[in-house]
Here is the input.
Amino acid sequence: MIPPGAGHSRYTFADMAIRHDRKISILDVMGPVMVGPSSSHTAGTARLGRVAHEILDDDPLSVHFYLHPPLAATYRGHGSDFALVGGSIGLNVDDPRIPEAIRIAEQAGVEIEFSEEDQGDVHPNTVRIEIESASREVEIVGSSIGGGVIEVFKINGFQTRFKGDSPTLLLFYRDRPGMISDVSGIIAQEGINIASLYCSRKQRGKDAFMQVDVDSPPSSAAIGRICALPDMAEARFLDRIP
Amino acid sequence: MIESFKHLEQLAAGRDVADVFLETDEQEHAVPAEMILEALRKRREVMRDCVERGKNGGESMGKLVGNEARLLNEAWQSGRTFLDPLTIKAELYALAVMGENSRMGVIVAAPTAGAGGVVPGMLLALEEERKIDPEKTVRAMVVAGGVGSIIALTASISGAAGGCQNEIGVASSMGAAGVAYMMDGNVRQMIHAAAIALKNTLGLVCDPVGGLVEVPCVKRNALFAVHGLTAAQLALAGVESAIPMDEVVEAMVRIGRSLPRGLRETAEGGLATTDTGNAIALRLKAEANQRRADRAAERERLAQERKAQR
Ligand code: SF4
Here is the structure.
């Protein structure tokens, strides 16, 4: 559970008028190709579900969506329920099966639940997703900020700023000096450029999290070496979220 | 990074604007120019398919719209229209795309799904009417997308953030720049086309009936496709916006902030809360509850079946 209001301060509603740290690409503006009717309620929400699915990296058994009140008021009319579920079972935003997603998920035995939950001072279209497989559990909080663009600002309780617009490494580890340089060293050996790096931790010397956005996917050998670093609990590689 | 429209004008003086956008995007997002073009070629095809499918109309999810494209097309085919073919096509194509959108069909969000009819309406109609090479349309999509990405540096592209000016206004502005590109305008004319279009959508509120992207969205796309064409026409004739584009965008952000919440996609104001709007919202709610009950029953049935199997 996220303590109410914790860590949301950087993402206030008024902030949306402040310059973004990274320019939205041409393909983001002239796209995505998607199932209608609303890019923020269908495409963006499908991508949020997809992020949860990709981090889980397993067949989900249950997905629970906690919708921020403004989204809870509008989601059904826009088909966000189909989209969220579609994404969380791995469908792309342009998959014509999205309108059928809930039925597909239920037939596959995935338990689905929607409820309303205030996420604090955040974008109106914000959702917290809890997704579970037989062996794993993932929680994300993110917003669909328009035009299919998303911002995930919490992963498994760690603050982050994940947009799904570049290949990304998500690393969960025990906080220790030198971890960042170990990771960036392995990536540099691959000749890959790091576009941005974001770290957060729950407490010094305790659980920590690193998000590394890279310009191109690292080899599986490199990911293996990162996984094998001392104190690394888990490394997940996510390609661009379509 | 292209910081502003002023910066764009300096960077692109005497150059092909599409190349300037492709180069900066390539640097910034590590996607090769050819891949961007290839993706946009496919998206143009999706737009074309969408127009073809959508021309025949069909019922929308909320059943508030559906036959607009078909009616206009029939009137046109039987010689009952009075506007020129470019204008009619722009309207027709925008309606067709939005019809598909309202049926959960596959569309291209440009920049959003709710405003997704404007750019294809303008660019595809112009391409056909002026017999322009489709590759040039693709490059005009680069220009339109580039314009949108500069706007998105300061403004959030969503009706929830600033009203419909941020969606259909921005689409019309992007499309106007794209049209100026297709008609061989220079960078200054493209920027002024965008400015004239955007300036004259300021204050446009987002008040969708029942919260659905149907009323007023579908017809609004058709009207603002034509709006963008006329803005491009003025700019190509040498008319300039007295207020520079960067300042128009700033004005849009300020106006968006001062819009009451009820006029920012919440369906709690404007057209959404007229007598008819309220009645429709009630009907939609009842239908949604029914669907939910049906789904629960279906879930129950499936669970029973699984139990029986075991
Ligand atoms: S009225 Fe609102 S929902 Fe409709 S197109 Fe405009 S911004 Fe989108």
Remarks:
- Residues 75 and 96 of chain A are 19 Å apart (CA to CA).
- Chain A has seven helices and eleven strands.
- Confidence is low (pLDDT under 50) at residues 1-20 of chain A.
